[in-house]
Amino acid sequence: MPETTDSLISPRFLFRFSADVRRAEPLWSSQGVSLDERYQIPFLAQLDEERPLAEVRMAWSPEGLAWWVRVEGKQQLPWCRESRPEDSDGLQVWVDTRATTNVHRASRFCHRFVFLPRGGGRNAEQPVADQLLINRARENARPARVRELQVHSKVSKSGYELSAFAPAVVMGGFDPESQSTLGFTYSVLDRERGLQTFSAGQGFPYEEDPSCWAELRLVDD
After folding, report:
1. What is the DSSP letter of 206?
2. Torsions phi, psi of 138, nearest 5?
3. Which residues, listed in sequence order, are joined to residue 190 by a DSSP beta bridge?
4. What DSSP designation does 42 have?
5. How many structural domains compose the chain?
6. Which of 91, 111, 124, 215 is most solvent-facing, going by the fewest CB within 10 Å?
7. Domain containing 26 — which CATH number?
8. What's the domain range around 134?
């Protein structure tokens, strides 16, 4: 018998996703962010019968957005290069402060940040936070200034924990009081264990196309 069409389509492609993100106060400290299981983001890739390689949590406050990631079960240190952030092990996030998930090219309200557990500093053991351009964007977001983005990590050969913070000032249009929804997706890359994405997987242009992103609702509890 011939294959059915459904077997050729990622199940995640068939849905428009929306999820809640809880508020946390205080959001960030010198030790990073502390988020319990209530802040965990749904693992949507299970619809594609994928297994999680990372646990991802997220919170918001008027100060900005914060993420916490844990990767376990590794046999070697994360591969991270400050000069090659897109190819490095770590977390990338895409945030659209206008939640325009029906367009295919990013606007100035769309932001792409990368956070690496190591790869920076003189000995390449310091965590890295940076902003990346979004390919084919109609207009680029305001560049983040040095040290505006924050990152903290704990690394071992079996995995790492990473905390990341994007303050409101680096996200044009971020105003939770008047705009309580965001367009959002993420990827966790691990050369040893693979790739984990949020609303759309490999084969879809989630790196540049806001229509591939999910909607997040910023809630108080």
Report:
1. T
2. -65, -35
3. 194
4. P
5. 1
6. 124
7. 2.60.40.1190
8. 5-219
Q: Of 52, 109, 104, 113, which Cα lies nearest the Cα of 85? A: 113
Check: CB of residue 11 under 8 Å from CB of residue 4.
Answer: no
Predicted confidence at residue 10, as pLDDT, reads: 66
What the block records as the tokens of 144 is 């983040």
Strand ranges of the sheet holding 54-61, from the earlier edge strand across to the other edge: 54-61, 64-72, 159-167, 150-156
Instruction: State how far the Cα of 149 lies from the Cα of 165, in Å rounded to an integer.
Output: 6
Torsion angles phi and psi, residue 7, rounded to 5: -70, -15
Give the residue carrying structure tokens 């965001």. 182
Tokens of residue 184, six digits: 């959002």
Q: What is the mean pLDDT of residues 17-31?
A: 92
3-state secondary structure 54-109: EEEEEEEECCEEEEEEEEECCCCCCCCCCCCHHHCCEEEEEEECCCCCCCCCCCCC
14, pLDDT greater than 70: no
| Start-to-end Cα distance in the chain | 51
Under 8 Å between Cβ of 81 and 121: no
pLDDT tens-digit readout, 170-213? 999 999 999 999 999 999 999 999 999 998 777 889 999 999 99
**For residue 32, what is the DSSP state?**
B
Residue whose entry in the numeric block shows the structure tokens 């924990």: 161
The answer, yes or no, to whether residue 7 has pLDDT greater than 90, is no
